[in-house]
Design brief:
Blueprint (H helix, E strand, L loop, with lengths): L2 E7 L5 E5 L9 E2 L36 E4 L7 E6 L2 E6 L1 H5 L3 H16 L10 H16 L4 H5 L2 H4 L12 H12 L9
Parallel strand pairs: 4-6
Antiparallel strand pairs: 1-2, 1-3, 5-6
Helix pairs in contact: 2-3, 3-6
Length: about 190
């Protein structure tokens, strides 16, 4: 099932996900991607269909749509940037294609979180942890992944040594993601 939802930036720095269309509260509406013209191209605020999984929309902290596009050989699962003044999320379809759908969604939400939280303009030492926790909370709230999914990502992160710009080493990152999923507010300060 492909899922389509909007990430919305609201007052007071609170970001939440809102189902689109006629779905009832608490449901996420399926959206046929081909009917929306999302075939082999970068389309504003949707995930390119070359990846199996869910389509999402993302808006940055200024409520501007964020374009998602496939970029081969990106060297990372995803990257949040500005291209010609426009917010963009670049995704490596080969790397993402090797991951479970729930982890693909996490990476997409993580990059969206950088735009929603304004990290592109003002990154801090905590930016990666903030984007991680934001993505986990969004995915949990929407039912895109369960506790067992998040804990089960350990083998995919196990070899990661972290990054100089703030990603935690693999096992610590998964432990942090699980703490965010469980609502542990002290996780950000560890």
């Amino acid at each position: 099932m492909r899922i389509w939802f909007a990430i919305v930036w609201m007052f007071g720095g609170i970001a939440f996900a809102l189902p689109m269309g006629s779905a009832r509260a608490g449901e996420v509406q399926a959206a046929p991607l081909a009917e929306r013209g999302i075939v082999g191209q970068a389309v504003e605020a949707r995930v390119a269909p070359a990846q199996e999984g869910s389509a999402i929309t993302c808006r940055d902290f200024r409520n501007r749509p964020v374009r998602m596009m496939d970029v081969a050989d990106l060297g990372d699962a995803g990257r949040a940037e500005f291209v010609q003044g426009n917010p963009v999320i670049m995704l490596d379809p080969v790397l993402l294609g090797k991951l479970p759908e729930s982890l693909q969604m996490f990476f997409k939400l993580h990059e969206c979180g950088h735009h929603v939280l304004g990290h592109i303009f003002a990154p801090t030492d905590a930016s990666e942890k903030e984007a991680d926790c934001w993505a986990i909370k969004q995915g949990h709230q929407l039912g895109l992944f369960a506790h067992t999914d998040v804990a089960g990502w350990l083998p995919y992160f196990a070899a990661s040594r972290g990054s100089p710009f703030g990603h935690l080493p693999g096992p610590q990152r998964v432990e942090f993601l699980v703490a965010c999923f469980e609502g542990d507010e002290t996780a950000m300060h560890r």
